[in-house]
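#dry-run=false #mode=assembly
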Amino acid sequence: SAVISQKPSRDICQRGTSLTIQCQVDSQVTMMFWYRQQPGQSLTLIATANQGSEATYESGFVIDKFPISRPNLTFSTLTVSNMSPEDSSIYLCSVQDETGSSYEQYFGPGTRLTVT
Amino acid sequence: DAKTTQPTSMDCAEGRAANLPCNHSTISGNEYVYWYRQIHSQGPQYIIHGLKNNETNEMASLIITEDRKSSTLILPHATLRDTAVYYCIVRVGAGAGSYQLTFGKGTKLSVIP
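#status=ok
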């Protein structure tokens, strides 16, 4: 299974600032995703990070607020822009494992963001 | 993707089998049943998946009813480390385009000493 790392693991930020979260995978993958988990809630998909093209955003999420980069098949970044306390969440990167036939997804450890 | 229904919480004695049910009565013929779990403060972990046959791996067994409208995840000998939120997700399989996982609220399993 793919090994995924995220940086930073946690951060405390002031409102109005931006934070960029990095996701690194130990193998080349086609599909990478970014999820958000608000306190006490389940995971919600933000967007699919596409290599070489713009990310595909889910309803309720926009590029201006959550710009995503995917420069190659092992790396992606998610920026949380102009943060407010409502952005306090865990942000998770996941990848699709296409080496077998099952196409399961694997998740990184998450980035715990607190906005004050 | 089809919607799933799971109990909010369950308790299980350590060393006993934990049986976690999931209803997915609107599942389509090309949709698989996936199970993930999330231990506190960690990212979700893939457990097992299946289409219509029962499946077993080193972590768990998955029993899917013949009509595919429900399934049960079985942890044969629960340990304290199995305490987590367990998510049952129905999703189209490989090659079908959308690989998105839609997470519901899951079942919070507490393994009790």
